[in-house]
Write a structure and sequence with these properties.
Two copies of one chain form a homodimer. Chain A is mainly alpha-helical. Chain A contains eight helices and three strands. In chain A, α3 crosses α5 and α3 packs across α6. Chains A and B meet through α2, α3, α6, α7 and α8 of A and α2, α3, α6, α7 and α8 of B. The structure holds a DNA duplex.
Chain lengths: 161, 161
DNA sequence: ATAATTAAGTCAATATGACTGACCTAAATA
DNA sequence: TATTTAGGTCAGTCATATTGACTTAATTAT
């Protein structure tokens, strides 16, 4: 199987090379999140808090439903973490025109934290990406995009329209 | 800040575009792991089990210490998950020449599972990557590699020498 | 030969992030 | 008026991880 594969595939599509991609994704993603993790720890927050802060910062006045769609967790899971952020005044809640909905936005304090966390990740990406051609960078983004499942591709487009 | 950035940076290095990379990493990594997760669930295993199986499969006769270096978790964390895999005969333990060490390898049962899980991820990467040029694929891998912290780059090289 | 270090393991307590299931309220829509 | 939708809540559970303290056995250094 692997032998046949080695014969038929070009080098960069060999199973062995593909496995390296698996590992690169694992290592790079872990290191990508480790920077913010250290700051969050001091506030007794975790990665779940980061994700909420990120997406609320991304789309002001996002509703609970929209947030759940992006995060793909249950509302019970969201509840605890979100309430902490609201109680500690990183996020402020208001009522939508549809009075059943709630709209979430970052407070000034929340924006400050969001900025602090995002800056780490943005700078890391910038530092890395700077060395590459526009062609390579676009390829990188397109490959990542193609790895997303159809439904979530739509979600990605929605938050970026 | 962002305005200045927009003026000085080429489009593909704008903060807004960089933020898309943050999201692409989040969405793609989540979907990348979701396939194996479904199989693991049936066995009452989680992602932690997957990682152990993957790296034991990658490097036969890996020691506990080496495995901890790769996974970057505590031995107490490893213990519970690894013991499950050993008890359920996915992994077999033997003693090294240095009798303090233990060597881990996959049983036939473990190899079967490893293969099942890896195949999902390998095929996913292949499906995606097929559409791209060698140049793009190499760029993709290099960018991911550059996102890894120095120490972990060494670990990556070690398991791939 | 003894002391120090290393590899591995264990016990206990704790935190975080997630889940299911059941149930509730209020508002909007059919 | 009935149904659906948005959101919330209570309770219990599970998986993954942590810190800290301590043990055993084997290897290495003095």
């Amino acid at each position: 199987m692997t032998d046949l594969n080695s014969l038929l595939s070009p080098f960069f599509l060999n199973d062995k090379e593909i496995r390296k991609v698996i590992e690169l994704l694992f290592f790079s993603y872990r290191d990508f999140t480790s920077g913010p993790d250290k700051i969050l720890e001091k506030l007794n927050f975790g990665r779940a808090h980061h994700r909420i802060i990120y997406f609320v910062g991304k789309k002001n006045n996002i509703t609970i439903k929209e947030l759940l769609l992006v995060l793909q967790i249950t509302k019970q899971s969201l509840s605890r973490v979100l309430n902490q952020l609201v109680n500690e005044k990183f996020i402020i809640v208001s009522t939508g025109i549809d009075k059943r909905t709630k709209k979430l936005s970052l407070t000034e304090k929340g924006e400050k934290l969001e900025n602090q966390l995002s800056t780490i990740q943005i700078n890391k990406i910038k530092r890395v990406i700077n060395k590459y051609s526009e062609e390579n960078i676009n390829g990188f983004k397109e490959i990542l995009y193609d790895m997303i499942e159809t439904d979530n591709k739509k979600t990605f487009q929605q938050i970026n329209d």
